[in-house]
Write a structure and sequence with these properties.
heterodimer, A: mainly beta, 12 strands, globular, B: 114 residues, seven-stranded mixed sheet, 11 strands
Amino acid sequence: AQSVAQPEDQVNVAEGNPLTVKCTYSVSGNPYLFWYVQYPNRGLQFLLKYITGDNLVKGSYGFEAEFNKSQTSFHLKKPSALVSDSALYFCAVRLPPSGSARQLTFGSGTQLTVLP
Amino acid sequence: NAGVTQTPKFQVLKTGQSMTLQCAQDMNHNSMYWYRQDPGMGLRLIYYSASEGTTDKGEVPNGYNVSRLNKREFSLRLESAAPSQTSVYFCASSEAGIGGTEAFFGQGTRLTVV
């Protein structure tokens, strides 16, 4: 079975400061890892993914995430937060396909608030 | 460039009523999914369809049925709605059999069962 944990329900950060949204996962095998963002009354939007290769992945809107296999983590980061980054962020894990579709398993979400 | 389209956007049902949530994607994706989103619980998979003609249960299938009408469309039916089904429902699609492709989501259906 695969699972994802986002240990913080809420993260507050001042505009211009770096931000980190934490994610840890549990899966047997080599996972595919994703970050999605949800703005109010909208569907989820894809931010970035880790498949293989470089542990630092860059995505949309200046976000990046670092895959750490030994700590089974995939934390989302941004060097300088914007008020417009305030949203609900979801981490997700998926096992590589092996002849059939594999569904995403989502974390419970972290509400990021960037304070002006 | 519509992506994933869900209808309706909002719905209020009385307990025991039935309804069908519609979903269509125009990206030629093989896999489609229905999730529900509840506060503090993230997204939970209700049903998914790996390809046209196949459907499988997800984490929380009880009280729901699905139909993969064709490659584009994947509907979710509530036969006898219950207050516990009050939630926001999201349809998503993705490629299958190709490593690491992301899912694309619709804007959601906010359902209230009274």
